[in-house]
Amino acid sequence: MKTHKLRTYRSDENLERKDQLAWAIAEVAVDDVEVADDVTEMVINRVIDNAAVAAASVTRAPVAAARAQALTHPVSVNGDGATVFGREQTRRVSPEWATWANGVAVRELDYHDTFLSAEYSHPGDNIPAMVAVGQHVGSTGRDVVRGIATGYEVQIDLVKAISLHKHKIDHVAHLGPSIAAGLGTMLHLDPEVIFHAIGQALHTTTATRQSRKGQISTWKAHAPAFAGKMAVEAVDRAMRGQTSPEPIWEGEDGVIAWLLDGPEGRYEVPLPEKGEAKRAILDSYTKEHSAEYQAQAWIDLARRLHNEHPELLEPGAIRNVVLHTSHHTHYVIGSGANDPQKYDPAASRETLDHSIPYIFTVALQDGEWHHGHSYAPERAGRPDTVELWKRVTTEEDPAWTRRYHSLDPQEKAFGGRVEITLADGSTITDEIAVADAHPLGARPFARANYIEKFRTLAEPVVASDEIERFLDVAQRLPELEPHELAGLTFTVDPGVLASVPTTKGLF
């Protein structure tokens, strides 16, 4: 890897384009290095993973609204259009709207892959745009794989180097540029076109983190889909010769100077050398449970305690619970956020999946975690749950914060240590570093797990022959011809979508 040194430049310093981060990323995108076999296998896994969580969310209100919007925007004239999760393959929409609808479906349940470092990310959010645009223009499966590999590489490299949340900027500000770069790879665009698409995508996708604070709304699922839609539109404009603000990161009035660390800010962004394979997808990890990634290991620990310590389940057995964990976990999904909504039984699902006190309580009591039942209003409002929930707090532990930020995959961790004080004053302590499904966990996810996740989540709404058809197409992704790419979707059983209340808007 090479290091791109990033800072603000005064206008009179006249930073040359070749020295700008957007150009360095464009050069990564145009580097025609082969995708390694293990990276290709993981791309396939994540395509299956995305479809799994989209199937589970296909009837949820935000997904239905986004799908309804997309279906009012028919195929544009310069391509074949793109498919929408749930609908038949022959029903096509304009690719930016397919990116929108499918992106919301993928993100709604907070149930797909993640990478955490200086910033947070869900790099699987790159995939809907690559597939939608690929279907529209007639890309091969190989080119889609290459585009996805670039999208993951760029987003993860940015996430390793640049913290957005520290300045209350939403993490999708790294996603717009990564999708623009990935589309540049997939479409074999010139570096100058990609450069301008990256700049426009970044410029239009910076927003505050209020979408993930307090009473979290349905916009949380829409935010990455919006970034994807903006990136697709940015690529379209750049292909037509339209230029972007520059230097977008480094400019005197640019992103660093006014949204991030200011004129004195310094960053070191790792990027692949020319000819170096794009392998960052292998640094990311998916979710076994539908919850914020920093809750994954805690769910597994709570399940273990449920089985090993049945005395904890007795009424009134627990005086209090303290989760000693990283700075991010404490301040984002823990009691350190100082959000009363994280202890509110009437809070939205989006809020509850960002409340580690709630998640740990329910997983401890139930010995399991379910993407639907565990968030049901009647489950959140159960009196014994509410009583214990309010006794669960978090505290930052510098050791776990250090491990959270470690770049050594053998040391990097997202868990912590739990201390449970019982009513008689005795304590039970335990700890966990990574989730069971993590590559270094007790049961690392492999292809069979991704397939099982898709089958489990799709079975309630998708016929068995359609499930197997999708799995066959997805696993042949690198060999797909352009006409086969439309099969990279699923159609739900008749009547499933008809049962969803119809929404009406402007379109």
UniProtKB/TrEMBL annotation:
According to the UniProt entry, where is the signal peptide?
none
Protein name, entry field: 2-methylcitrate dehydratase
Q: Which transformation does this protein catalyse, written as a reaction?
A: (2S,3S)-2-methylcitrate = 2-methyl-cis-aconitate + H2O
The subunit structure is:
Monomer.
Which keywords does UniProt give here? Lyase
Q: Which residues form the MmgE/PrpD C-terminal domain?
A: 289-477
- Residue intervals of the MmgE/PrpD N-terminal domain: 20-264
InterPro entries named among the record's database cross-references: MmgE/PrpD_sf (IPR036148), MmgE/PrpD_sf_1 (IPR042183), MmgE/PrpD_sf_2 (IPR042188), MmgE_PrpD (IPR005656), MmgE_PrpD_C (IPR045337), MmgE_PrpD_N (IPR045336)
Q: Which Pfam families does the entry link to?
A: MmgE_PrpD_C, MmgE_PrpD_N
The EC number of this protein is 4.2.1.79
Q: Does the keyword DNA repair apply?
A: no
EC top class, in one word? lyase
Give an example GO molecular function: 2-methylcitrate dehydratase activity
Identify its protein family: Belongs to the PrpD family.
Q: Which SUPFAM superfamilies match?
A: 2-methylcitrate dehydratase PrpD (SSF103378)
